[in-house]
């Protein structure tokens, strides 16, 4: 459907100009200069020729074949032009013009107009307020930006035009090829999700990269991106991760909200690799486009100098990679081939006196070694052999194996030729050896994601639909969770002191007393919880203290909840939080009163299958502890996993729940179960926090 | 003392060669080509002329003045040459030759020889196994590496020759100037500490940078580096931070050990900024050399595009910087000058249509604004004005204010001229806007370090020296700590069940019972601790359980320690650990059985003054919690600070203590004190862990 944007039969440029300082000139120049083979039809009433091309008075006059219009006229005229395009049978347009929703109220009206005209005349369009598109294979360049990257395998779409311009410039300087580059602009029609789909369908694109500030529809985005990621790597850079950044995004594009955590969890789920910086995004993209994925985390480092190898090793270790052991055969072989003082353990140091021949021998041996999943080749500057010759050698030897090789031919002034050769040979090079670590980590991460069996989440049905609806409507969180199979410790409400004693004796010591009051959220903040009560006397004392604390804090005391106290368990937090973009997220981590302090809570998009629930648990320190820590026996992980799956289904089943949090959830030892002790929740558009114990 | 290495009166090159493929040729070439103004005296028996310079048969023949020898002869001949130098009155040498300790036993012997000959003849030397030195201001280039950086303000010394070669190459390509560059080689004579001192004394060097794998003497290094850092910024990149990296360092240089943590703490204390990567080191160095320090963390971002600004803002926020608020006046002024749709809040977006004139006006306004401590200027690629003109404008406007400005003129192909101008104007530029964050963070960190008043640590004298020595010798950790003013809860040993009951009743409930046994380290691992015992019956039950557990674990039970149980306090860990390089380090953090899991322990080099102790506490989550968290009252921070200072003195006083650890140390609420509950310790060269409660 988006094909005519990238492989048009003919292109009309409405608003073409003879003035070299106008964008309408740059567009015609780029179409021509970068060898677009179809018809180029400048449209401009007051000119007869632009850059030796015949100029047309109106769209209607443009001859066949033509299926793409590039519109660069003042904002108030754009709708009219789109209508003319529709009438002429041009069903695809790129609206470069600015002055729409990004520039205030007036522009917003013009944009609404544009949308309805385009719908009426069935014109698909990219923009407005964008800088165009490039397909290096067609080739076609609809931008006004000087320069065009070489043909390549990386597709890039961006919600920032500036980022497109800088990527074009960077790609030219660095000699990195691209397949397609797309500036999405205000994306009132064609959006990032459709563009990712288009890049997915494009055979020339081997890796999809995207600069994303927000998505149009979280769930749809995840579906499309995951489908794409199953076939080819998708790397995204998210703008607006911090608080100030998010505010800036809102004022930049007015993009729909969605928390940075939710984006992280959504990317994770869909198999999108989230880069931290632009540099990282394109380091990764080159490696993913050019090299096979490593089978595992074992890296061999081949170097002619110790220092740079050490920096690479430090960075690799920090990124969770490990140094391959190397077999005895490999070491023996290297010993017989390398200089006497060389290091034949990993990192393998051929020493400064070794040239491309020695590198070739050593690289071949390392790539053959079964303990090696990938190889990093470092060359510190030297001036007794041509760096380009090493580039040729690495390219050739790597090409005859099926393991990834990343190069770091260091330096700047002396190595340009070598970098060109490496890029031609499809060996990614980074100027500083530390950068190899994040590249290999991204590759391993993709490999692991691809290896996850795609189980459908289990569908639980062992609950009463009516009860569920009623409990949710009444914010009776406990009943709701019990219905979904989550257990609570025995407990009972008591209205006065005497009743409390009776109830405590019947439940059995030790017990916990908790203040019951409509108006209190964090009970510990008014000292409304008394733990580990072991006798009648202690019950009385605790009641008095709670009463006193409630009076002090000036809150109504309706009574206390008497609860069986659980001992020897591990306190975790488990909950749901609804993201405006990606829907319900399940969160899990170390619980208790220090939750915010410990910052050990991770989240994942609902629903969760078993593996996803396990991964969520394992990503937290709480999860590590649950496997048995010091003298503590392993906790009942199985129950926790089941709860997470059930809770994730609850989040999907009930769209009116905004937040639901069990803290603590008491996890007893293996086989003994887990018990929710405290639950808080809110319904969507429900400002007031409702407490229940 | 090291002056002749950088400002020699005349240079003899022993081992000079006419063969362009030999290092001995490259050295003579570099001396000549890079305009060394003193006499250059090649020494080679079999040549009469090298590169049009007269060649001498031996060192003895070289005419005056000459005070530096560059030695590039086979390793076995080096000692003889050094002797000849000494005899000739040349007291400084750079030994380029390899084949010494780095290459095995034979080389080690040669190195020992070299050291004793040099001592005998009083010759100071850099190397062996190095690639020489550069002083761009003299100028003199004693390396054989092709190319020479421009004159500049950055001094660099390195324990890796490869790093020197790559920095030379990078500097040439990036147009960054250096003052001095030094390859230290095996540094058996001149070492990294002396070199940092020499760079400190050099007026041309405004910033010291160093690649360090190990230091020769930790305490001396700290002293010299701190003195240097008080005058000029010192930035270090530490090689061998991870486990594998540290192993590689050991095999690379055989450098003395010292943990990565200790290096971090030593750098922190001495005011050395620790960079994470080479790129970061030189990003920081340029900014620190060229720009004033910011007064604080408030950054204004000035941009012509939203996306790149958002990425910069994300990175700034992550680095702990914040966006300046901007005064109402500034906003009003910008509103009157910038295009209508521009953003006049921070980040200030002048929009793609604005050129260098608009940037000038906005930059001047931002630098004038009192809420702004520093400004980041971003330019996304455009092609309607010369990027170089923006570079001129930024340079000029920044020059008339005293706040730091960091630029990110993005792109590669189109901006070379602009970068040259920025570098000439001393405005650091980074190709990707995210990199500004780490630069500004480093500058703020330096500012904060410079602002710390240099208090001398308090010297405590309220203890009995004899008792201290005796306790330490007997590993009576408790007595030792009590002597140093650290409190323990009331406790008493009991040998059998009956005695335990009596003791418990006399101490008063609740109490804790702890297994006493010579052979147990982590008591909780044999279930040897029973907490919160409140009655006679519970004492009996606890005794039985401990007995049972001891039998199960097959350890001798000598009795139990009955201890007053402390309630309502916060469990922290506090300890000493002796580093082989930097001596005693004090550690502090969240305590309890989950210490390793929580990873909330920070360390600092002893001794600590009050501010350093406070900073150590504040760097941990435990410290944040101590200030009062949720319903918990503030803990007795004052006592903890005092303990840390006292403990740090203990570490300095007693050089035979290897490790000493209180976990948990129970910190009660403000004014209530803190009590050590469990102490473990080891003496230096004492393999066995001794436990005491």
UniProtKB/TrEMBL annotation, chains A, B:
GO molecular function: acetate-CoA ligase (ADP-forming) activity; ATP binding; metal ion binding; transferase activity
Alphabetized Gene3D superfamilies for the sequence: ATP-grasp fold, A domain, ATP-grasp fold, B domain, NAD(P)-binding Rossmann-like Domain, Succinyl-CoA synthetase domains
Domain ATP-grasp: 478-514
Keywords for the protein's UniProt record, in alphabetical order: ATP-binding, Ligase, Nucleotide-binding, Transferase
Record keyword Transferase present: yes
Pfam families: ATP-grasp_5, CoA_binding_2, Ligase_CoA_2, Succ_CoA_lig
PANTHER family: 3-HYDROXYPROPIONATE--COA LIGASE [ADP-FORMING] (PTHR43334:SF1), ACETATE--COA LIGASE [ADP-FORMING] (PTHR43334)
Family: In the N-terminal section; belongs to the acetate CoA ligase alpha subunit family.
Descriptive protein name: Acetyltransferase
Source organism of this protein record: Fodinibius salinus
